[in-house]
Design brief:
The chain has 125 residues and is mainly alpha-helical. The protein has a single domain, classed as Phage tail assembly chaperone gp13-like (rbstp2171). Strands 1-2-3 form a three-stranded antiparallel sheet.
Length: 125
């Protein structure tokens, strides 16, 4: 009978895997997206909920999740201003993948985006 994972197996598991994402607005090579740690997600949600609606939600996601193939971050918090000047479709690709790989629910996204923006996204506007 299986005994289940041990504490050591869980704590030593490599569970943050970088996966490629094509962002055609930025060129032919992919960027990589790595899930947030639980601590990062808690801070992300808390920060954005404290300052609703946030103008930096997509750039914040890019800082936390865009990595190289080895999972090393490409951006720092100091890059948020520069990221806000990049193409909206490019950052939307990043945001959409970040939502998916971090298992945000529809309710989570609605809370992060605030009611009016979430409603507009849902209606295709």
């Amino acid at each position: 009978m299986p005994k289940g994972l041990t504490r050591e197996q869980i704590l030593e598991a490599v569970d943050r895997i970088a996966t490629p994402l094509k962002v055609p607005e930025w060129g032919d090579e992919p960027v990589y997206m790595t899930p947030m740690t639980t601590r990062e997600r808690e801070r992300y949600e808390r920060k954005l909920n404290d300052a609703q609606p946030s103008e930096t939600i997509r750039a914040e996601m890019a800082v936390l999740c865009v990595t190289d193939a080895d999972g090393e971050r490409l951006f720092e918090r100091s890059d948020i201003g520069a990221l806000l000047e990049r193409s909206a479709p490019a950052l939307e690709r990043i945001f959409a993948r970040g939502i998916r790989i971090n298992l945000f629910t529809k309710e989570d996204v609605d809370a992060l985006l605030g009611g009016s923006e979430a409603d507009a996204r849902g209606s295709g506007a």
